Amino acid sequence: MSGNEPVKKSLEEENHGGDHVEIKVQGMKSEPDTTPLRDLPWPMRIKRILVDYVLSLFIFIGFLYLFICSLSIMGSAFQLLGGKNAGQSLSNSELFSNPVAGVVLGVLATVLLQSSSTTTSIIITMTAAEILTVEQGIYMIMGANIGTSVTNTIVALGQIKDRDQFELAFSGATIHDMFNMLTVIILLPVEAATGYLRALTAAIVKSWNLETDKSKKQDLLKKLTKPLTDRIVRIDKKPIEKIAKGELSVSEARLLKATCDTEEIVANCTEVITPAAAINASNSTTVTMASATVSTTTSSGIVTALGSNVTDMANDTLPTRVVSCTKEVKIPCDYLFHGTSLSESAVGAILLVCSLLVLCIALVFMVKILTRLLQGRVAESVKSFVNAEFPGKAAYFTGYLAILIGAGLTILVQSSSVFTSAITPLVGLGIIDLERMYPLTLGANVGTTVTGILAALASNNIEPAIRVAMGHLFFNLTGIAVWFVIPKMRQPPIAAARLLGKTTAKYRWFAIAYIVVVFFLIPLALFGLSLAGWKVMVGVGTPICLIALSMILLKVLQRKCPDHLPEKFRTFHFLPRWMHSLEPLDKVFACVTKRLPCCSLSTAGNEDHDVSTDTTNSNSTNSGTSDSSTVSSPASYTESAV
Prior knowledge:
Blueprint: E1 15-16, E2 20-21, H1 42-91, H2 99-113, H3 116-128, H4 134-147, H5 150-156, H6 163-194, H7 196-206, H8 222-229, H9 238-245, E3 259-273, E4 286-290, E5 293-295, H10 300-306, H11 310-316, E6 320-332, H12 344-373, H13 376-386, H14 398-413, H15 416-428, H16 434-447, H17 449-457, H18 462-483, H19 491-506, H20 509-532, H21 534-560, H22 577-580, H23 583-593, H24 615-622, H25 626-639
Antiparallel strand pairs: 1-2, 3-4, 3-6, 4-5
Helix pairs in contact: 1-2, 1-8, 1-9, 1-12, 2-4, 2-20, 3-4, 3-17, 3-18, 4-6, 4-18, 5-6, 5-15, 6-15, 6-16, 6-18, 6-19, 7-18, 14-16, 15-16, 17-18, 20-21
């Protein structure tokens, strides 16, 4: 088959020893050359090293750069689309007296701004300006922690084409969500009842001698991405802060930058020379008339004597001369959308579509290059190294090393979203296990708090600002203490993320539904209930929580000790089908999208995803047909992928 002919896929089975099943795709080589490097002549060795490894690595770095830049532009797009509304929602500080409303507004603001760093900086600025209290700021920081995980969840959609990769990638992305949500569920009532984080941060800050440091910057990653992103769009975040403070109306705010720099230029100025008779010889005076300013070297008494008559004296009696002077001039920005006639919302929509397109393209090529590079023994070696454990009893501390690595890399790039989004495809490829992704994500949560601490150190009213920033840090550290220190406590977030991955692999539309429901509909519903008052929230929320806890308890009993349950309650089939299965919804989506091949998100076929089905039972049931499923499954899912 020539390289110009269309690639034709066919599955061929080759049994080695009766057990191994290998899938080959004609026209596409999974391994360019299986000959070991040491067996090749030197010219071929050099060619393989330069082409297969060095060139591929440089191409991968290029697509990684585009991937990171597309994340930055996507964040700018969301700010243009929802930044003003986010600032306006933050301006009503009376709403934040309700802890639930504070958390929800933190979630929505971060989702709209696509940056927990921006949301955190605004919250800290408002706290320093005493618009928010420390208590309100801490509640909103909790919500920002949840909202920031939407980015890598969106990135996981880039691997939706391959069922197995999508399952792993979505699990790796949503483990961030699960940890943040479970930590908020634990700490929100504790903080509301005891003021744990407020008291802890107050005690710590009281013992410090803090001084404002305006030199703190957070531009480590931006120095690499700005050369490209600044040529496309430049966002001014100050109007969002002013809207949040109530200093600027939404109609007057302009987020697209007009001027980006200042420059000193040399200009001609008129200098007025005072006569020696009018001024004491020891205090000679020179008055420069430029830009409606008067500069003088005389004493304050002489300036007062001259007063407002300087211009008249210059025009009538005093001699003048032209001299060179410097003026500060603002330089207009030079980027693609500068001076456009389009509205900011239209620019944001265009940037959002383009950034998502570039992000998906970059992600697809990154995955292909990694798949090409990490094959056979190389893949096994890399996977073994990344997921290795310390020997013996020291294995317990391996996760803590991963937390330190995640925190360090996040501090380096100053963005937890960029770090977690960059390693999500590696989880999809199976290079990083879900158990290793978990501590890396926890480290990213800790590392991103450094941005808030730096912003607090640069504020004028440093004490309340640093308390909110430290509250963010100890919120994550407390979550780690609850959900990581004890090995068995690591299972709930990992198991929940794995269940979401299995569900999205079976029902593709569930991934989009998850993002919409978890990051928009549920926060909006909670916000509406919080506005109605505590009585309404308790009246509506208590039954829902009791039902949810009952279902969780029943599920645990079904898995652990089903013999102790009545036969009727050993499965969820006693409930209506739509309450324990996604099959009815899947049929609805199938009917809607069957005429749109590009949107065929339903891949369940005749299978039924039942929440009462035990994973171990399904594995034992399918063990006899593992060989056939190995061949047929990739084809069936690839054909119906997005």
